[in-house]
């Protein structure tokens, strides 16, 4: 039968108790999980806030777009109406009774009362100026090469909006022209009436709209040429800037209306674009809000939230780490106290308290299983004299050396080495008879003598006397077994010391109490 191991010298474990270090680990794990949960909630909240900011920005951009289109559409309608009226004044029968001066006066009043008109001209079928009501001095010029003349010449296209150009009559002022065909009595082409609009005037329509410092409102024709940009990159409205190759413009042209986020080719700014076409024209109006401005408040919120959450989590983690360290320290201190309560502080062997518990348990097991139990009682010879001669430090070293030799020869789980008191040591050997215990005892004796002979501080080796006793039916309890071993120890000392003696009651033939491999 396998012998029962001795009680742990560090003290008995509390049944079902969780080590405090594990509690500390659990606290750290809970803090980590809570931190992750808070982080997840924070991310979800910030994502919701981001969507809200994006939605508000898109609504703001749509409001700017609607205002921009409304401004431009109403002004285009007014210019278109002015063109139609000018064409009627020039050609309709009901104005036939008017002489040339009256027609010029009427056209001049019309032009001056419509905002943003730079010139109003009537061109004959060759493209020459036939009427110039807005100039006090009649100007001359031929504009047969302009698209606002060529397009109506080919067909009646209604009101035609030209490409941007620099005016020959107004010091190369950037302009666009709106023109209409004049049809003669025979139904043929009889010239055009045109209104020249300064692009700076168009940009002035949008001065009261604010897309932000990095935002932009732009009017672009179908050819990809900019009629106006507010605010301007070049200070003049970026007139005639060619965006025909821009992916953003191509997308706007293809979709006609919508929204998207993209980086501008002009200045590299990431913007949220909303765009649409002006009804009954080929003009696109786009509003782009710079995302770094739109989300600046959200970014600040992100930074502050992250800083607060990280700080809170760091503090919680630091506290949990300190708590874990404190729990581990307390557990180590308690373990050390328990160990000190059950071990001899000088030798590290079990103390008398452990011996009494273990011996009682092994005695009951030996009775129950009818297996032998032996005790070795060891006493250092003349230890007081050695201690007085060499000092307590050397005496302590001798006792530690004896404990080391004992431990080396007590290698089975059922063996227990104990410092019984002073220079006395006890070894309990389960499943070992007196003969086997005597062999172990003699090995301890020889080993100790050899070890002390190699100790530099001693003039001569120190020896031990050992008594061996085996549990018998006549022994009622552990003190009886101790008394038997003590009698054997007394006989060893009386016989000259440095020897092993067995108790006479259990000192029969060795074969009567063989202890398995101890006697092998």
UniProtKB/TrEMBL annotation:
Residues 500-520 have a biased composition (Basic and acidic residues). Residues 495-520 are annotated as: Disordered. Pfam families: dCache_1_like (PF22588), GGDEF (PF00990). The lineage of its organism: Bacteria, Pseudomonadati, Pseudomonadota, Alphaproteobacteria, Hyphomicrobiales. It comes from the Bacteria. PANTHER family: DIGUANYLATE CYCLASE DGCM-RELATED, REGULATORY COMPONENTS OF SENSORY TRANSDUCTION SYSTEM. The keyword Chloroplast does not apply. The chain crosses the membrane at residues 23-43, 302-321. NCBIfam families: GGDEF. Keywords: Membrane, Transmembrane, Transmembrane helix. SUPFAM superfamilies: Nucleotide cyclase. This is diguanylate cyclase. It catalyses: 2 GTP = 3',3'-c-di-GMP + 2 diphosphate. Residues 371-505 form the GGDEF domain. Its EC number is 2.7.7.65. It comes from Ancylobacter moscoviensis.
């Amino acid at each position: 039968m396998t012998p029962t191991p001795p009680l742990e010298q560090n003290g008995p474990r509390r049944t079902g108790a969780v080590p405090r270090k594990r509690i500390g680990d659990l606290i750290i794990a809970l803090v980590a999980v809570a931190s992750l949960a808070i982080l997840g909630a924070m991310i979800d909240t910030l994502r919701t806030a981001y969507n809200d900011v994006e939605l508000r920005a898109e609504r703001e951009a749509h409001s700017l777009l609607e205002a921009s289109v409304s401004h431009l559409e109403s002004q285009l309608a007014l210019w278109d109406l002015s063109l139609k009226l000018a064409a009627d004044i020039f050609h309709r029968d009901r104005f036939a009774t008017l002489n040339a001066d009256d027609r010029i006066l009427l056209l001049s009043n019309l032009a001056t009362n419509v905002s943003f008109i730079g010139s109003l001209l009537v061109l004959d079928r060759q493209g020459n100026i036939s009427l110039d009501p807005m100039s006090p001095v009649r100007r001359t010029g031929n504009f047969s090469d302009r698209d606002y003349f060529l397009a109506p010449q080919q067909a009646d296209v209604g009101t035609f909006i030209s490409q941007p150009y620099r005016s020959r009559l107004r010091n190369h002022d950037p302009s666009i022209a709106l023109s209409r065909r004049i049809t003669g009595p025979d139904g043929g082409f009889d010239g055009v009436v045109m209104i020249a609009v300064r692009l700076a005037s168009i940009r002035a329509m949008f001065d009261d709209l604010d897309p932000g410092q990095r935002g932009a409102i732009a009017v672009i024709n179908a050819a990809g040429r900019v009629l106006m940009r507010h605010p301007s990159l070049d200070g003049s409205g970026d007139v005639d800037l060619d965006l025909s190759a821009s992916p953003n413009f191509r997308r706007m042209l293809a979709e006609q209306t919508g929204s998207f986020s993209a980086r501008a080719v002009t200045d590299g700014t990431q913007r949220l674009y909303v765009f649409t076409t002006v009804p009954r024209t080929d003009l696109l109006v786009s509003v782009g809000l710079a995302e770094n401005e739109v989300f600046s408040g959200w970014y600040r919120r992100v930074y502050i939230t992250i800083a607060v959450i990280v700080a809170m989590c760091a503090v919680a983690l630091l506290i949990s780490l300190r708590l874990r360290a404190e729990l581990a320290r307390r557990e180590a201190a308690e373990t050390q106290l328990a160990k000190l309560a059950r071990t001899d502080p000088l030798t590290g062997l079990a103390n008398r308290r452990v011996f009494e518990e273990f011996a009682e348990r092994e005695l009951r097991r030996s009775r129950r299983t009818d297996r032998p139990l032996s005790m070795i009682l060891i006493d250092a010879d003349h230890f007081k004299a050695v201690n007085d001669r060499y000092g307590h430090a050397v005496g302590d070293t001798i006792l530690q050396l004896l404990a080391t030799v004992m431990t080396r020869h007590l290698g089975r789980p059922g063996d227990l080495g104990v410092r019984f008191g002073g220079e006395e040591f006890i070894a309990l050997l389960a499943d070992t008879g007196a003969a086997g215990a005597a062999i172990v005892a003699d090995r301890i004796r020889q080993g100790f003598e050899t070890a002390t002979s190699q100790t530099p501080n001693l003039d001569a080796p120190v020896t031990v006397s050992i008594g061996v006793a085996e549990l018998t039916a006549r022994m009622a309890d552990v003190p009886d077994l101790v008394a038997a071993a003590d009698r054997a120890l007394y006989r060893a000392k009386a016989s000259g010391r440095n020897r092993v003696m067995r108790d006479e009651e259990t000192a029969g033939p060795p074969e009567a109490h063989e202890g398995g491999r101890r006697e092998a």
